[in-house]
Design a protein that fits this description.
This protein folds into two domains: about 5-30 and about 290-380, Alpha-Beta Complex (Aspartate Aminotransferase, domain 1); about 35-285, Aspartate Aminotransferase, domain 2 (3-Layer(aba) Sandwich), CATH 3.40.640.10. It is built from twelve helices and 13 strands. The protein has helices spanning about 5-15, 35-50, 55-70, 85-95, 115-120, 140-145, 170-180, 200, 270-285, 290-305, 335-345, 365-380, and strands at about 20, 80, 105, 125-130, 150-155, 180-185, 205-210, 220-225, 310-315, 325-330, 345, 350, 355. Helix 8 (about 200) links the parallel strand 6 (about 180-185) and strand 7 (about 205-210). The radius of gyration is 21 Å and the shape is globular.
Amino acid sequence: MSAPTIDHIRENEFPVLQNYLPLNHAGVAPVCMRASVANAQMGSKLARNGFAGYDAYMEQLAKVRALCGWFIGAQAEEIAFVRNTSHGLSLVAAGLDWKSGDNVVTTDAEFPANMYPWLNLKDRGVEVRTVSAKGRAPSLEEFAAVVDERTRVLAISHVEFSTGCRFDIKALADLVHSKGGYLCVDAIQSLGVIPVDVTREGIDFLSADGHKWMCSFEGTGFFYCKRELLGRIRPSHLGWNSVKSQFDFDHYDLSFPDHARKFEEGSLPLPLIFALGKALELLIEVGMDEVHRRAMGAAAALRAGLSERGLKDLTVLGPGGPTPVVIVGGEFDLAAATAALTEKGVQHAPRGGGLRLSPHHYNNVHDAERFWALFDEVVR
């Protein structure tokens, strides 16, 4: 079965195109139509049927969990549903058995979600070491200079939010593993547009939520914990759903399952999770290699308009390869351009000293032409 065409996807999945130019998938992406429908349908079922059908809902939940695992090369038992990326990263930070003198290595260009959970460990004697990555791509040797035998976690964004720099995850995994530590990846800036395989790339922990490149809702994502490490992360939040016998309400037995479900302390937002599953199905139908190819083509179409206007791409090319991010830089008033383009319906973000454009697989050359026409109107 061939992948659905860009035109088919544009017509059936992204009505946002009727009124806006969506180029902010690295920020808050439009929700694809099938995810929106799944959310509404589940809400309607709950309104009409109440508790009836709960067993079927649990079966559907298990299917989405397995789908999330398959999407990143993991098993269902290694997947926990979380509220957001910060939630998943915080599970690692709060759950490891830290010792005074341990350290975490990261960069100085991380989104706060991948910084505050580690800084919060200061009162436990844990040092946070940073490698310089603002406006540049640090080398593996720079990481190696600060990773040592007391490094428990190397915490890194697969793609940096402000520069578009993509790291070589496998190389970083090999580095930290050689010292006995773990690799924890904030994948929200890549998952859904760049193929990810946690086994092949040596990832120990990964967290991402659905509102960027996966084109689903805010408020729901998933966390991956390598099966062999499940016993080393103690749940920081506990509830009825954390234990092996979660439906035995009359007896208290604080025994955790050998399953990432132990990180889900209570009831889950089923409509949002089912919507996330539908969003992943769209990406799988296209195929992640094709998703990446199409998104890179859309980025190239945008990049083609830079030189004739005397502009430059401020995106940082990292050791992991290119990304579909274009940061438009030049001699123009960034704040004024951002405000004017937003007024004209161009969804983007001011990042990295320029206009960050992050097209997806359904954007095309006509979107690039439309962007530059609007840019020329507001930047004279």
